[in-house]
Write a structure and sequence with these properties.
By secondary structure, the protein is mostly helical. Helix content is 79%, strand content 0%.
């Protein structure tokens, strides 16, 4: 829960700032379009520093890096609140992104080393809650703070959370020592940083129109080129920064590819729901945010049921069946219209939240079920990197598909049926991931829950 709270703080801050951009633009005397730098530079910093997180955890010890990341994130939050210009805020957001890149994967390393295998599924179910709720709660919380107080409080609210987090980490989390046995792969760091940064920033720019499409596509091409060069480089060095040989572990490889497909399809749901509720239904940001939050609330219930469900059906059957259900519920959310009763909207979103929570809790546990302890840092870095990339890719692809659908149908404004079609396509992608999980053996990951069954 301590590690989950750090993740929650990062996700809340990353999404709550979206509602404050207009007020910041007025106070700084900047054009609204330039305020997108506040979001984009944060994502860029995360992309640049995620690859080095695993090496840092092994070199200096995961608890030391985790505490340092929380402290830096808190100090950077104060710097954001004290910023008097867009330039100062942009620098502070870069520091925030660097700290956030360390918090999540290093927190996972601590979890993997501290939790017994039979408790890993339960631990991951707790860690999934902030990942689901944070992006949904962020916008309405940001709107509330901006409306009642000012945009500064979006960042200042991190101060007490950060102080409490440091105290709890130092008191309750073991201090695993670092090791000097592995040098830093500098060439790998440069190639992975350019690759991941180009892809993440390129998809973000493409999806939200931050840059002309030619520039956005050029960034994506640069990212792909650097990624290919990194793969070739990783095959030649003894200690690559990101160890792609982990994909040879059957459970890690299957959940890596299946999970990426699932996130590309499902991560676009909050973005599409905001468009549906605000632009099509005419709800204000707070109403739309509160309605969307129902999906995150379902994660709390699934936390209590995930272990029992997986113990009953096993990882393979759970992932296959739940992938299909995820696709169906995602497509169902796109079928809302202005006449749909609110209780139907709430029920469908609540069910969608429960199903997605189960899927990501199960994926999180199985991903690391067979990873040796000494490779936990490398596995966490690779997993975090793929999550960051697919989350950005999801929104970019959804925005591009929505634009294409509107163009083909001759719509100048977003219609409910446009969103419904994109939601259906996203749901189909989630359901297709079930084909990947079929490669799992029937007893895959049984060590994670077998001890509880006995």
């Amino acid at each position: 829960m301590i590690i989950g709270c750090a993740l929650f703080m990062e996700l809340i801050d990353a999404t709550a700032v979206l509602t404050a951009l207009p007020q910041m633009a007025r106070e700084f005397g900047e054009a609204s379009v330039r305020m997108n730098l506040v979001v984009s530079l944060y994502l860029l910093a995360v992309a640049l520093f995620v690859p080095v997180s695993g090496w840092a955890a092994d070199r200096f010890g995961p608890r030391r890096v985790f505490v340092s990341a929380i402290v830096l994130f808190t100090v950077a939050s104060v710097a954001c609140a004290c910023s008097g210009s867009l330039f100062q805020l942009s620098l502070a957001r870069l520091a925030q992104g660097a700290a956030g890149a360390m918090m999540v994967p290093v927190g996972q390393v601590i979890l993997l080393r501290w939790s017994a295998r039979e408790n890993l599924l339960r631990a991951m179910s707790y860690l999934t809650i902030p990942a689901l709720i944070g992006p949904i709660l962020g916008p309405p919380l940001g709107g509330l703070l901006v409306t009642l107080l000012s945009w500064h409080w979006i960042f200042l609210i991190n101060v007490p959370i950060g102080i409490l987090g440091v105290v709890l980490v130092l008191r309750y989390i073991p201090d695993y020592p670092g090791a000097r046995r592995q040098p830093l792969d500098v060439i790998g760091l440069l190639l992975s940083a350019v690759g991941l940064g180009g892809l993440v920033f390129g998809f973000e720019a493409f999806g939200h129109g931050l840059l002309p499409r030619t520039w956005a596509l050029s960034l994506i091409a640069l990212g792909l080129t650097s990624a290919v060069l990194y793969v070739l480089h990783a095959k030649r060095v003894r200690h690559p920064l990101i160890d792609l040989s982990l994909l040879r572990i059957p459970t890690f490889g299957v959940t890596f590819w299946g999970g990426n497909l699932m996130r590309i399809g499902s991560a676009s749901q909050p973005f599409l729901l905001v468009l549906l509720f605000q632009l099509c239904f005419g709800l204000n940001p707070l109403q739309a945010g509160l309605l969307s939050f129902v999906g995150g609330a379902g994660a709390f219930l699934m936390k209590l049921l995930a272990v029992r469900i997986v113990s009953r059906f096993g990882f393979k059957r759970t992932l296959i069946g739940n992938a299909v259900l995820t696709g169906l519920t995602l497509a169902a959310t796109g079928m809302f219209d202005i006449s749909t009763p609110y209780w139907v909207v709430v029920v469908v979103l609540f069910a969608s939240g429960i199903i997605r929570s189960l899927q990501f809790s199960t994926l999180g546990a199985l991903t690391f079920a067979d990873v040796p302890t000494e490779q936990s840092s490398a596995a966490s870095s690779l997993s975090a990197m793929s999550i960051q990339l697919t989350m950005s890719l999801s929104v970019g692809v959804a925005a591009a598909l929505l634009s294409l659908v509107m163009s083909l149908r001759g719509h100048t404004a977003i219609a409910e049926t446009d969103v419904a079609l994109v939601m259906a396509l996203a749901g189909t992608l989630c359901a297709v991931s079930a084909l990947v999980y079929r490669r799992l053996s029937s007893d895959a990951g049984s060590a994670v829950y077998a001890a509880r069954v006995r």
